[in-house]
Amino acid sequence: MQTYNSTIDDAQRCLDKQHNWTGISAEYIARMRLQNRFNTGLDIARYTAGIMRRDMAAYDNDPANYTQSLGVWHGFIGQQKMISVKKHFGETKGRYLYLSGWMVAAMRSDFGPLPDQSMHEKTSVPALIEELYTFLKQADARELQQLFRDMDAARDSGDQVRAMAIQNQIDQFQTHVVPIIADIDAGFGNEEATYLLAKKMIEAGACCIQIENQVSDAKQCGHQDGKVTVPHEDFLAKIKAVRYAFMELGVEEGVIVARTDSLGAGLTQKIPVSMQAGDLAEQYNAFIDGEKISNLSELNSGDMLIKQGDDYIRPTRLPNGLVRFKANTGEDRVVLDCITSLQQGADLLWIETEKPHIGQIAGMVNRIREVVPDAKLVYNNSPSFNWTLNFRQQVFDSWQEQGKDTSGYQRDNLMQAQYDETELALEADQKIQRFQRDAAKEAGIFHHLITLPTYHTAALSTDNLAKDYFGDMGMLAYVDKVQRQEIRQQLACVKHQNMSGSDIGDEHKEYFSGTQALKAGGKDNTMNQFA
């Protein structure tokens, strides 16, 4: 690891070779280098891939070492999240960022708000990765710049003990740059298209790419109807395409999350060709729904016929040509999807479920682990779930099984506020609070994420401010609900000029122009009111 002094020494050796570079300070060069520790997105991808691999190993040793992230849709939001994590917890260990395809579609497309159906520009995904890391690197620069200022002040006052203590903080500095789990949807096309987009995402800094087994041109949000999956061979080709992209770019520890939507998908795009008995195509085709045919005269013009075991069936096809799966085969298809993906190059699994139920998830994971013992999941703690109602109903059902009195509750109406302080509601809230810890231990979940929380927090905070500001509170709405809280909770963002890089710019101007620098941070800067 480069220390403050060793970075200065490296810069000085370079300057010593250039006798005409007068006025260039080795210490200023060192500061700028330390403030920008990652020169390329590939540097970031390699660094963060190593973090994820170490975290995965730590989880294998103890499931209490699960990791978490929140989905973000803008660089500033990601930056503020990681600044908050460092402020409250002192380190970023175990905390990542999630890049949600849903939020890219809804908030980052030139077409305007779009549904989560892979209709947005594919280039908007690597662009957001690059933006997120630009803001995270700026958070590094800002925090280090303040340490440099504090060290200079200590030196000027003759307090060498304090100066050395601050220099030690600089040497031990923990970057805001953390892994991003990046959503590539279903690959935005064929396997070559997937490979090309994966390269762009990795070059922007992605160490972890999540890909799903839906049809690219018929992709749906995981919590909507109409999902169509592809045969295993098609999905495995895309997993391999992502792996080749990682390997080509030298990110050998890159992580692939294979997501299966089979639990809620009732349709397949096509019937794969089986080359030999028991292969993946035959296993996939065993799930296809159809009518048993005993005589060729039963076939109509254009009908299709396949052999399924010892039977011949006419597959159930929709008018659009899609083929239906047998009912109640979702969990079996999920298990086969996951085992196959892990055996063919994926590192982590994502099982998209319709509710947050530890027993349901554990049931599938335990079956997968019979074949792949170290299988582990990334799990979507989705805002599409009604968490309050789901967990209150889980407690209600548990109470009924135990013979406990539930006569004071109506199962279908448990969302009502009248239940908020009841014993049932309090027990449900405790289960929600423990959900990530318990699911990590009991259901193999290595990483918990919320896909689009900051979409909802932005809407909620804006609604509250608009309601009061345009109402009777007027300016007090902003002062009381926003600025006063920023000050008291010590949000760095209250000094918005500093957060946007004004002080970093002043520092650079002084490097470049010396005493002639025209700086913005003087005594008349109104940000001094928040000192």
From TrEMBL:
tRNA processing listed as a keyword: no
Gene Ontology molecular functions: isocitrate lyase activity; metal ion binding
Pfam families: ICL
Substrates-to-products reaction catalysed: D-threo-isocitrate = glyoxylate + succinate
UniProt KW keywords: Lyase, Magnesium, Metal-binding
Residues of the active site: C221
Cofactor requirements of the protein: Mg(2+)
Coiled coil region boundaries: none
Entry binding sites for Mg(2+): D183
Keyword tRNA-binding in annotation: no
SUPFAM superfamilies linked: Phosphoenolpyruvate/pyruvate domain (SSF51621)
InterPro entries attached to this UniProt entry: ICL/PEPM, Isocitrate_lyase, Pyrv/PenolPyrv_kinase-like_dom, Pyrv_kinase-like_dom_sf
Gene Ontology BP terms: carboxylic acid metabolic process
Record note on cofactor: Can also use Mn(2+) ion.
PANTHER family (alphabetical): BIFUNCTIONAL GLYOXYLATE CYCLE PROTEIN (PTHR21631:SF3), ISOCITRATE LYASE/MALATE SYNTHASE (PTHR21631)
NCBIfam families: PRK06498.1
UniProt protein name: Isocitrate lyase
